[in-house]
Design brief:
Structural class: alpha/beta
Strand order of the largest sheet: 4-3-5-6-7
Radius of gyration: 22 Å
Shape: elongated
Order of helices and strands: EEHEHEHEHHEHEH
Mean pLDDT: 86
Distance between the termini: 62 Å
Length: about 170
């Protein structure tokens, strides 16, 4: 039904015939993710390199929802990430590519030259909003192992972590 008056606008009434469903028959839309139980229980040590606080919060919540024993350190730029890796060891680095001070590309190149060798081999997964081929190629050329597009689906992030954590990406 529509009501309209010149100079006053229009109003519309729409009736949608929905039935109230049975909650017991509700479909779970969450994707079924296969994560090794042992990996979920391990104390993963992840370095999240992200300058945006909201993105940090989303990534941390997503990781912790599947890996309750994960220890997550945050670096706001690539230089801090390099410093943190020099001071400690990580199972995986999640690296934003566009950051102040040192971007993710330069940080990855620096990490790939580090000593000892175990630090250079730390898996790096780029987190980027741009998935055009030239940008993805730039991630690989700088030494990153993989990428995930932002905004990401939690399931995709969990799969990447599962793939690379504790050297499982080989």
């Amino acid at each position: 039904m529509t009501k309209s008056a010149l100079g006053k606008g229009s109003s519309f009434i729409v009736e949608l015939p929905f039935r109230i469903g049975d909650p017991a028959q509700a479909i779970d839309n969450k994707k079924n993710i296969e994560v090794d139980d042992a990996l979920m229980q391990n104390a993963l040590h992840i370095l999240l390199v992200e300058d945006n606080m909201f993105n940090q919060m989303v990534a941390i919540d997503s990781i912790e929802s599947y890996f309750s024993n994960a220890r997550i350190d945050v670096a706001e730029n690539g230089q801090i990430a390099v410093d943190k890796l020099q001071a400690g060891n990580y199972d995986l680095i999640l690296m934003d590519v566009q950051m102040p001070v040192m971007d993710g590309y330069e940080a990855a190149r620096t990490i790939r030259k580090m000593d000892p060798e175990e630090k250079r081999k730390t898996p790096i997964v780029a987190m980027t909003a741009s998935v055009i081929k030239s940008e993805v190629d730039k991630c690989f050329e700088s030494g990153m192992d993989d990428f995930i597009s932002k905004p990401f689906e939690t399931e995709d992030l969990v799969q990447k972590i599962s793939k690379y954590a504790h050297g499982n990406g080989n």
